[in-house]
Amino acid sequence: MADANLLSAVTLAALLLHASGAPVEDTPTDMPAGEPSGEEQAGPSNLLSVSPVWHAVLGATKRHQKEFEDEFQHELKYHFLENYKVSSLPAGCPLSNFSKEACLHRLAHGLRIYTVLLKHVEKEYPGNLICSVVKYYSDLLINLSKDKMRNPEQVTALTSSQEAQLLGGLDHLDAFQRKMTAHSILRQLHHFLVDSKRAITKRENTKARMADRLLAPISFYNQKFKDEIIQKHL
User: Which residues belong to the signal peptide in this entry (predicted)?
Assistant: First the structure.
């Protein structure tokens, strides 16, 4: 069953990524110019920032803008959704003055919240493919994040009352506002994921550079010692 679920999610992701006619590997992850993405950097494969899960989930959320523009044609611009931000959306991880551990917790907790809010999106747009892909890969990202935490037990699922609180106020909106809110949730989710990936990449790269600086003198003296041994035997 797990293999079937994985195949289904991967198929949905491929459908979304290919919908615009672009191959999966060419789909950008919305990183700004000059900002290296995790996939482009060489490094240990156990780094969270280079996990292929990011490519899959960001490829899906990036597709949302085209879906919005196709639905409303020229009636509404994408930035119109700025008027419908949901107040309960989670805060992302700042690029500075925040530890990697804190960033991982914010990512996991934020994805829990977005997973609940996606229920509103699915209510307005039943069978939405983006929701199906994002929910699957969000679970994977949460688990990957917990694997990197010192205190993963602090990541807990939201209670039923917390879920009800998140969704409660959305049912009282009119039909147009409910649709705009659903689109706003997907838009903000994409930004949350992009910012989270960038912040985690920065922290993992900083840690790697510090480790390289610490190991450099050791490597130098090891090589020097080897050279001395070789010279003695010449």
Answer: 1-21
Average pLDDT, the chain: 80
Rounded CA separation 62/179 (Å): 18
**What is the rounded CA–CA span in Å between residue 53 and residue 75?**
34
- C-alpha 93/C-alpha 106 separation (Å) is 7
Query: Residue 163 corresponds to which amino acid?
Result: E
CA distance 207 to 185: 33
Q: What is the pLDDT of residues 8-18, one digit of tens each?
A: 555 555 554 44
Q: How far apart are the C-alpha atoms of 54 and 201, rounded to whole Å?
A: 11
pLDDT tens profile 100-141: 999 999 999 999 999 999 999 999 999 999 999 999 999 999
CA distances from 216 to 14, 97, 219 (A): 43, 27, 5
